[in-house]
Write the structure tokens for this entry.
Amino acid sequence: MAERGGTRGGFGTRGGRGGEGGRGRGEGGFRGEGEGRGRGRGRGRRGQRPKEDTKAWVPVTKLGRLVNDGKIRTLEEIYLFSLPIKEADIIDRLLPDLKDEVLKIMPVQKQTRAGQRTRFKAIVVVGDGKGHIGLGVKCSKEVATAIRGAIILAKLSVIPVRRGYWGNKIGAPHTVPCKVTGECGSVLVRLIPAPRGTSLVCAPVPKKLLQMAGIQDCWTAAKGCTATLGNFAKATYAAMAMTYSYLTPDLWKETVYTKTPFQEYSDHLANTHKKYTVGLGDKHYQ
Amino acid sequence: MALLGFIDEPKGGKTTNDDNPSNWTISRIGGQAAFPNDTISTKVKSSLLCGKCQKEQIFVCQLYCPLDGHKYDRAMYLFACRNPSCWNASNSWTAIRCQKYDETVEEPMPVDIESPAKVPLSSTDWCDDADAWNSDDDGTTTTTKKPAPVPTIIKKEIKQEPEVMLNKMKIEDDDDNNESEKSSSDEEDDNNNNIEVNTKKKSSNKNVSIASSDAFNEWKKTNLSKQALNISNSGSFPFYYIVIDDEDDIVDEAKLNEKRKLRKAMKKLGDIDEDDDDETTKGAKEKYEKTPDFEHGDVVFHRFQQKIRYAPDQIIRYDWSGHPLILTKADESTLSSAQKCRNCQSSCNFEFQLMPALVNFLKIDNQIGLEFGTVFVYTCSANCWDEKNDLYRVENVFVQADPDQNLFD
């Protein structure tokens, strides 16, 4: 393990580096205005912090801790419970075979008093080919930083994509379940179910997105200025997000579920909560 | 100029030369507190009771943090209540400060390392806007440290049901949602989140369906069952030492490493033209995007993450009379300006904070024993101390909960 040069001494008012004297009795706390060569208190043994590459993920949010401990096993549980995902490592842990691809890097310019300032905008799409897709856009002074930032944002925006059939329900779902449309800016993208074997009939940008989501056949129609790649990609992403928002006829049947003991108990205390629950085919809801 | 603390070896690590758990001039977490002398530990027990449930508190960490210009050895101790209903509450934590006069301290030469000479404003005024790209990722722009009143907005709640759970899909009930919205506004004061649910035209329903909330409740019952507390047994957290490093050094080093790695990765990506003249005309159509558009919409937490991303495993952040790194939106009034020293009535200033990564190490029997978002400790700016009478002094603590804690309750 690489040594980090930290000390076991104390904290202090200013960061005079007690790590300097990491030998012998070592340095104590750091001092305020002044050099850090205070008294030799504390343990000046050099710390052993691991190298960059071998760092394990240390979760910072509660959801991250739950994922790390294995209490949440699939991404679908997070979607079901409507929990916001704030750490990209959560997605890494739950979708280990996620791939990312850079759609485009373009320079954008801003006029300042001192001339023009160019920054690079990276658009990255992540997907596992099994019904999850994410799109990230990041602007930065350097290309590499923009790409890295965009990948993280893409991971934070991973959504599930519902796939269905065009006709006979034979085999695995291969296309969008219904006609869905998504808009961003002036661009409108419409995804239409297609029979098996059609493959993706669309422009290269949505093709990349649909491929990474795991949709095998689709017809598309696009409107607006599709040359603005950012909007085009976002519109396609929005269209795919709609697949799970759409209430298709096979979801019409109301589900009948048995009362859990928890529910029975809560029925007794029904005076505090006005919660409507349906149980055992009870039609008197609402 | 902040100092960061990281987890070091556990008790009895490899180099056992000066492994002395009763040394009070060492920074560590877990185990039992080591006071300068034994009379303190007996006397202090009376104040180590949780402000909410009056049970005994457990020792969390101690920091050795002498101040410059004072001939004192100084240490801070933090205690918290293990009761799950007291987590995330400021009055269930206690901070103790102990000092001991030490004559052997050599007063450091008054080196004039003042803050760098203030550059006269006029010379940089003209290109004031040049770096105003409003992005904090590069770290070159100075972010305002004052907690700006940024509302935490949950932009949209796209109702999503996974394929597996489709058979549980239910018809929404409007009243149910109103109920939950009301309850979220009656949060405790510690949860200073302003959650506004904005609906976009796509997702017109902002309800969480009954099935998913029921499923969540059941999941919570099985997975988040807080273990029965044995307060009677003096449980203690696992003992680890803390290694301290300077934030600036770490950040610089990490940035260099990152640049090197990214450059290598870039070569693999192949030819992506950095200055492609054809693209500039097309690129002009692409607008510059100021703020990154992230799904969860929690700007304050995003800024927090950006700040710690070069050292995400930091557990302590020490910045005497600096600014705390807030985790969630906090009212100005509850922070520094309202804090007064209990003993001498002078104002308090921020000293250090515990970071959320520390929760992973506060485990008893491999279960999380204490949870919090971040914990700020404010201490007397005058560092008041009565040499003759005092054994310890109590300081102020402010706790912020995890940004999504209300969803798990």
Observations:
- Residues 1-5, 14-48 of chain A have pLDDT under 50 and may be disordered.
- The two ends of chain A are 63 Å apart (CA to CA).
- The beta strands of chain A are 99-112, 115-127, 132-140, 159-160, 180-184, 187-192, 200-201, 218-223.
